[in-house]
Amino acid sequence: MPDDTPAAGAKTLDNGIRVLKAVAAHPQGLGVTEIARVVGIHRTVAYRLLGTLTQHSLVSLGKDGHYRLGPGVVELSMSLRSDLRSVARPHLRDLAEATGATAHLTILDGQDAVSIAVVEPGNVGVHVAYRVGFRHPVTVGAAGLAILLGRSPQPGERAEVTAGRGRGFAASQGELQSGAWGLSAPVTGVDGEPVASVGVIALGPLDEAATSSLVLRAADCLRRATEFT
Amino acid sequence: MPDDTPAAGAKTLDNGIRVLKAVAAHPQGLGVTEIARVVGIHRTVAYRLLGTLTQHSLVSLGKDGHYRLGPGVVELSMSLRSDLRSVARPHLRDLAEATGATAHLTILDGQDAVSIAVVEPGNVGVHVAYRVGFRHPVTVGAAGLAILLGRSPQPGERAEVTAGRGRGFAASQGELQSGAWGLSAPVTGVDGEPVASVGVIALGPLDEAATSSLVLRAADCLRRATEFT
DNA sequence: TCTCCTGGTGCTATTATCGCACCTCAAGTG
DNA sequence: CACTTGAGGTGCGATAATAGCACCAGGAGA
Q1: How many CB atoms lie under 10 A from the CB of residue B40?
Q2: Cα–Cα distances in angstroms (integers) from residue B66 to residues A13, A15, A87, A201, A227, in the given order
Q3: Tens of pLDDT along B55-107?
Q4: Burial (0-12, 13-18, 19+ Cβ within 10 Å), A210
C-alpha cells in the first residue's frame, strides 16, 4: 500500500528498506514467507535481507519465528534533528502546560509534514494524542500550513496561507481529525528558509489571541535558539 | 568505531545501513565524499545508496549539499514495541511523578540493554536526562541487571543478579554515570521470559523501600497489561 | 502415516553493483 | 586573470554480489 515507488538506485537496499517498513507496519510480527509475499520478493531474498537487518538490530527475531522491529531504529531516530528536538522539548512542555493542549514540532519532508516531537499536557485529564512520526500532506492542517507560511508566496497556494502570512500563524479546524482544532506558527532557519512549525492541538476552539501569542513566542525562541548552529 | 562486523549477508544493504548510521552519527550533516570515507566505500557507491535512502525519507539532502537524517526514521521507530511503549507511558509518568526521578523502560537486544521510553518528572527542577535509544551492556546498571533477573540463573552471573532475584528488583549506583542511582524491576512476558525492565534514575540515593514498591507495582501493571497480546 | 506449509541452506546463472574515467562548478591561490 | 584543487554528479564496462532454484528438515493437522 505504501511505497509504490517504481524503482530506486540500489535495488538491494531498496528491498531491504521495504522489508524493514513491512516489518514496522506489522507490530504483531511477520514470518519470512509473509514478508516475502508482502514486499514482493523471493523468500530466500527476504531471508538474507532479514539476516543483515538483524545484525544491525533494526529487526529482531522472536522465539515464535516472527520478525519484529528492533531497538536499532530508535537509536537512529534519536539523532534526527536532535538539535531542534532537544531545544524544542522544554518549549513544547511550557506550551502544553500553558495552553492545556497537545504541543508538537513538525518538519517538512517533500510534500508531507511529519511530526517529530510531541508533548502532552500533564494537568489535563483528556487531551489530543498526537503521535510522533505522524505524516500528512503539508497542505492540510495548521501544522503543515504554518510551514508554508515561511516560504515565499507560491502560485495556487491555499487562501489560508496567504491570509496567515500577515498574522504569522495558521489555524485549522477538523482538517486532519474532526473535532480537533490546531494553531501553529512557522520556525524559520538562519536564512529565512522554512524549517519546521510549532503548534498546539486541542479538542475544542482555541482562544486565538492568547494561544497565538504563546505559540508565536515559542516559535521565536526556537528560531533564535537554533541560529547558532 | 561502531559496527566492526566483518561481513553481513547482503553487502549492499549492509553498506546502506552503515551509511545511514554514519549520517545519524553526524547531526551537523555529511557530504557524499565524507560519508564514503567514513563508511569505507567508493564515492559513487555512497552516492547511489544515499539516493535510495533519500527516496525513502531516511535521509534528506540539505541545501548545503550535506546529508542529514530524514523523518522516515521516526516513522519507523513509532511502531517499535508500540504496544509496550504506549502501555508503559502512563505508568512511567506516574512513576516519575511519584518518585521525582526519571522513569524509563528498557529492553534487551543481544548483549545490550536499550532504553525505548523515558519520562522525566515535571515538578522537579533538576533531574537525570536519560535518553531514549541509550545503549549499554546489559550487565551494567540497574536497568540491565533487572532484565537479567527475569532470566533463569546463569553460571558466572554477577552477584547482584543472584541477590536481586529474591527481592525482585535491582539497584545500582554510579555504574553508567557517576552520581546516578538507579533502581529497576523486570517485566516478564506471558511465558515468564524477560521482556524488559522498568525503573527510575535519580541524582542521589533512593529510598529503597518506598521506591522499590512503586517500581515493582509498575512492573506488575505492565506485565498484566501486556499478557493479552 | 501422510500431506502441507514453514523455516533454512548450497549452488550457479544472471543481474545489479562497483569503481573507473570523465564532466561541471565553485573556491582558493599564484 | 589563469590555474589548481576539491567538491558533487553521471555513463559504462568488468566483476562480484545477488536472485532464485532445488533441496532438506521439522511441525501441524488431517
Answers
A1: 10
A2: 21, 25, 21, 33, 17
A3: 999 999 988 889 999 999 999 988 888 878 888 988 998 999 999 999 999 99
A4: exposed
**Distance from A187 to chain B by nearest Cα, in Å?**
16
For chain A, what percent of residues have pLDDT higher than 90? 64
Cβ–Cβ below 8 Å for B10 and A72: no
In chain B, what residues touch A63 (CB-CB under 8 Å)?
193
How many CB pairs below 8 A link A and B? 180
CA atoms in the 13 A half-sphere facing the CB of A162: 7
Q: The whole model's pTM is what?
A: 0.88
Please state, rounded to an integer, the average pLDDT across all residues of chain A.
89
Read off φ and ψ for residue A137, nearest 5 degrees: -55, 140
- Beta carbon of A12 within 7 Å of strand C? yes
Contact A66/B at CB under 8 A: no
Question: Measured between CA atoms, how close is A12 to chain B, in angstroms?
Answer: 6
Category of B183 on φ-ψ map: left (φ > 0), alpha (ψ -120 to 50) or beta: beta
Report helix, strand or coil for A47. helix
Residues of chain B with pLDDT under 50: 1-7, 229
Reading the block at residue B137, the C-alpha cell is: 551492556
Place of cell 528536538: A85
A138-148 mean pLDDT: 95
Chain A residues in contact with B69 by the CB 8 A cut-off are 76-77, 79-81
DSSP secondary-structure letter at B201? E
Q: Using an 8 Å Cβ cutoff, are A196 and A107 in contact?
A: yes
